[in-house]
Amino acid sequence: MPPALRSSSADPRRGRLARLGFGDPERAVGLLEPFPGADPFADEDLLAGLGAAADPDLALRGLATLVERQPDGGVELLGALRTDPLLRARLLLVLGASVALGETLARQPSVWRELADPAPPAEPRAELLRAVGADAGDDVPVGNADRATDLLRAAYHRLLLGIAARDLAGEADLVATSAALADLAGAALDAALAAARAGEPDQGRAARLAVIGMGKCGGRELNYVSDVDVIYVVEPAAGVEEAEALKVGTRLAQGLMRICMAPSPEGALWEVDAALRPEGKQGPLVRTLASHVAYYDRWAKTWEFQALLKARPVAGDAEVGTAYCAALWPRVWEAAARDGFVADVQAMRRRVEEHIPRAEQERQLKLGRGGLRDVEFAVQLLQLVHGRGDPGLRSRSTLAALAALGAEGYVGRDDAAALDEAYRFLRTLEHRIQMHRMRRTHLVPQDPEDLRRIGRSFGLAGDPADALVREWKRRRHEVRRIHEKLFYRPLLHAVAKLEPGEARLTASAARARLEALGYTDPAGALRHLEALTTGVSRRAAIQRTLLPVLLGWFADAADPDGGLLAFRRVSEALGETHWYLRDLRDEGAAAERMARVLGSSPYAADLLLRAPEAVAMLGVDGELVPRPRAALVEEALALVRRHDDPTAAAAGVRGLRRRELFRISAAHVLGLLDAEAVARALTVVAEVTLAGALAAAQAFVAGERRSPLPTRVAVIGMGRLGGEEMSYGSDADVLFVHEPLPGADERDATDAAFAVANELRRLLALPAPDPPLLVDADLRPEGRQGPLVRSLASYAAYYARWALVWERQALLRARPVAGDAQLGERFLELVAPLRWPAEGLEDADVREVRRIKARVEAERLPRGVDRARHLKLGPGGLSDVEWCVQLLQLQHAGQLEGLRSPQTLAPLAAAEQAGLVGAEDADALRTAWVLASRIRDAVVLVRGRAGDEVPKDLRELLGVARLVLGQGATPAALQEEQRRAARRARAAMERVFYG
C-alpha cells in the first residue's frame, strides 16, 4: 500500500477516508472537522463527491480554503453542496483536478454560485465586453483602459471555471469543450481590442481591424492553455488614408496583445502569437487585405497555406474578417497543386520531430511520434490533397474533417474510427495535464501522484497511474501506425499532380480527360467509370477517389482501355471484399502497380481475374519475388494429399500455378525480374505443376489397382523445360522413364507406369481457364510412334542400338524435373556418353545436323509468315543460336566440361572462353537470343497468348516495345533493334554452324 494511504485503527474516520482515495486521511480529518453545520463525516454525499474527485486531498484543501473565504463562514456553501448534486459534482471535480481554478475560486469566493446554474453557459463575448466597460451592442465597442487587464482576466477565469466544470462533470465532450475555449478566447480578444480602442484618438475608428484566429483557435479546437495564434488584417475607414489606417491598426493590435499578455494578480491568460502572419516575425504586424492576397499569391510557402486551413474571423471587424477568409479560402485548396507540395508537408512533419529535445521525445504528447501532430498533419494533408475536388472535406475541425475523410472513403473506416478515438483521448489527456496549474505544457508527467490524479480523472480502474500510461502508449502506437500509412501514402503524390477539377470527375470532365489521355474508346471507358463510381456505397466512394489517378496510370501503359476494363472486371469479381480497395488506397504502390500491370498485359490481367485475391501481392515487394522450388513442391503435394479425386487435386495444383504465373508476370511487367529470372521462375512453376500432377496420377492409379505401384517413375525435362529456359508459351517437353521395383513383374510395372503417364497428361489437359501447360513427349525414342513410357533398361537398349543424331542432340537438354530423383540421375548417367561423346561427332553426323537444320528452316515456318519477323525460326532467331551451341556441345563437350549444361548461354560462354567461338560472334549470338526471348515473352504478355512473331499490330507492338526496351520506347525502335540483332546473329551462325 502506498505511504499516502496511511490510516489509523484508532480513528475509523481516517480509514474510511483512505478507502475513498485520500492520500493523507489524517490531514483530511483535520480539514473536515471545522466545517460548520451538520457533521461532515455523516454527509455521505459530500464524502462520496470528494472521493470521486481526481485528487480527493486537493479537492478538500480547495474546499476548505473556499469555506474560509465565505462571509458567513461557509454555511451557505456547505448547505448548497448537501442539497444540490449538480453543484456538488461540478465544484468538487474542479477543485480535485486544478490548483489554478481553486485559486480562481479563492480570489472570487462568490463565483461558486454560478456553478449551480443548470442553464447553458452565457455567450462569452457580451460578458467580457461588459467586464471592460464596453457595450456589446455597439458596432465598434469601446471599453475602458483603466484596469482593463485585471477586469478582463477576472471575467475570463470566471467563465473558464464554468467550462472546466462542465467538462469534468461529463456534460460536454471534447469537441464542445474545445469550441467553448476557442469562443472564450475570441471573446477575450474582442474585449482586449475594445479596451485598446479607448487609448486611441477617435477611439481607433480610422482602422477597421479584424483579428483572424489561426491554429486551434481558428479551428475551434483550443486547449485550456495554448498560444492563441492570430493574423491581423486592416482596412481604412471611409475617408481615411491607407497609411493612417495601418498605423492605427498596428497600435490597436499592439494594445490588444499587451492587455492579454501583461502580468496581473488575476492570473495569466495566454500568449497572443502573430508569427503566422506573412513573412513571420520579420513582417509587418498588420496588413491590408490586398497586401495579404498579394503575398499569398506570390511568396507564400507550402506551410503557410496549410496554416490558413484553420483561418477564421474571431474578433474585431466582422465584415473585414469575412472578406479576408473569402479571399484566401479558395487559395488554400489550390496549394496542393504546387510542385513538391506533398513532399514539403511530409518534410515539415519530420523536421518537427527532429527538433524535439531528446529528453522529451518519449513524453511529448503533442509533437512526438504518435502524438497529436501525427493525427493533425495526416488529416490536413489528406484534406488539402483531396479537398481540391471534394468540398465536403473543407472543414477547419480536425475531427469533423476526419469523419468526412472516413465517410467518403479516403480513409478506411477502422482507421478513421481508431484515429478519432485516439485523438479524443490524447486531447483530453492534454487538457487534464494543463488544467492542473493552467500552464502550457504538452509533456506527460513522470510523477506518480500526477499520473494517479490524471488517471482517476479518466475513471481508470486498478492502479490509475499504470492504467493511464498503458492506455497512452497503446493509443500512441496506434496513431503512429495509421499516420505512417496515411501520411506517406503514394496516392497522395499522384492526386496532388492532377489538374484542378480532375480529382472529382463529372461526366463531361471525365470524357474530356479520357480523350486527352489517349483512350481509344472514351465512350466505352466512360461506361466503365459510371459502373464503378455510381451510387452511395462506400465502394463507389473509394472508387471515386482512386479512379482520377488510375486513369492517368492506365494511360501511361500501352492499352489504357484494356487496363480500365480489366480493373472493372477485377473490382466486380472481388465485390465487397473488405481489403481490396483499402489496400489500393492505403498500401504502398499497389494501385499504381495494378494499373501498370492491367494496362500492359492482358495475360496478367486474365490471371488476376481467375485469382483476384492475388491483388494483395502488388502492395508488398517481397510478394513479387518468385517462391523457392522446394516450398512450392511442398505446397503442391499438400494440395494433392487433401483430395481423393485426382481431378480436384489437379485443379488445386493448377490454382497454385495460376497464382505463381501472376506473381511472375506482374513482377516481369513491373521490371522486377530480368529475362533470365523469368525463365527460371517459369521453369520452376512447370516443374512443380508436373510434380503435383504426377503425385495425383500415381495416387489415382494406385487406388484403381488397390495396391502400391510396382515401379518408380521419373519425368525427364527436355527442350526449354530441361534447359531451365521456359517462356510463357512453352510446352513441357518430357520423357517418361520407369524402373520396376525388385521382384515386380516387368509387364505389370510397365502397364502401371503407362497408366500414370496417361493420367498425368489427362489431368493437365483438362479444360481450364488457365494458360495451358501442354505435356509433349514427342522427343521420346521413335517419336510419336514409340511407346509413351520406357523402362531405364529399355532406354539403354534403344540408345545403344538405334539412337540417331537428332535424338542425341535432344538429349543435350535432358534434366530430371519430377518423380523419383535417383532414377532421374541414373537416366542422366545412361545418356551422358550419347550427348557428350568422348570422341566428338563424326563428319557424317555433323553434316546430318546441318541437313536437319536446313530442313527445319525450309519446312516448319508457318505459311504466310514474314521470315524476318519470326523469333524462333527466322534468320538470327532462337533456333539459329541454339543449334550453334548444340553442335558445339556434340562436338566438344566430351573434352570440355564447361559445355556440359542443358542451358544455352552457359555453354556459349564456355565455348567463347575455349576459343571455339570468337568474342564478336559470341556476343552477337548471345544478344540475339536474349532479345528474341524477351520479345517472345512480351508478346505473350501483351497478346494474352503465345506467339513467335514480332507483332504487326501497332498497339501490340507498342506494348511489346515498352516491356522490352522501357517506358518511352517506340515500335520503330524495337523493330530496328530486333533486325540489327538478328542480322548480326545470322552472320555469326553461318560462320560457327556452317564453318
Automatic annotation (TrEMBL):
UniProt entry keywords in alphabetical sequence: ATP-binding, Ligase, Magnesium, Multifunctional enzyme, Nucleotide-binding, Nucleotidyltransferase, Transferase
Enzymatic reactions: [glutamine synthetase]-L-tyrosine + ATP = [glutamine synthetase]-O(4)-(5'-adenylyl)-L-tyrosine + diphosphate; [glutamine synthetase]-O(4)-(5'-adenylyl)-L-tyrosine + phosphate = [glutamine synthetase]-L-tyrosine + ADP
MF-aspect GO terms: [glutamate-ammonia-ligase] adenylyltransferase activity; [glutamine synthetase]-adenylyl-L-tyrosine phosphorylase activity; ATP binding; ligase activity; magnesium ion binding
Residue ranges, annotated region (Adenylyl transferase): 499-995
EC number, as in UniProt: 2.7.7.89, 2.7.7.42
All residue ranges annotated as the PII-uridylyltransferase/Glutamine-synthetase adenylyltransferase domain in the record: 346-487, 852-988
GO BP term, example: regulation of glutamine family amino acid metabolic process
GO cellular component assignments: cytosol
Region named Adenylyl removase: 1-491
Cofactor(s) annotated in UniProt: Mg(2+)
Enzyme class: transferase
Domain Glutamate-ammonia ligase adenylyltransferase repeated: 90-323, 592-829
Pfam families named among the record's database cross-references: GlnD_UR_UTase, GlnE
HAMAP family: GlnE
Functional note: Involved in the regulation of glutamine synthetase GlnA, a key enzyme in the process to assimilate ammonia. When cellular nitrogen levels are high, the C-terminal adenylyl transferase (AT) inactivates GlnA by covalent transfer of an adenylyl group from ATP to specific tyrosine residue of GlnA, thus reducing its activity. Conversely, when nitrogen levels are low, the N-terminal adenylyl removase (AR) activates GlnA by removing the adenylyl group by phosphorolysis, increasing its activity.
Family membership noted in the UniProt record: Belongs to the GlnE family.
Protein name: Bifunctional glutamine synthetase adenylyltransferase/adenylyl-removing enzyme
Native source organism of the sequence: Motilibacter rhizosphaerae
Gene: glnE
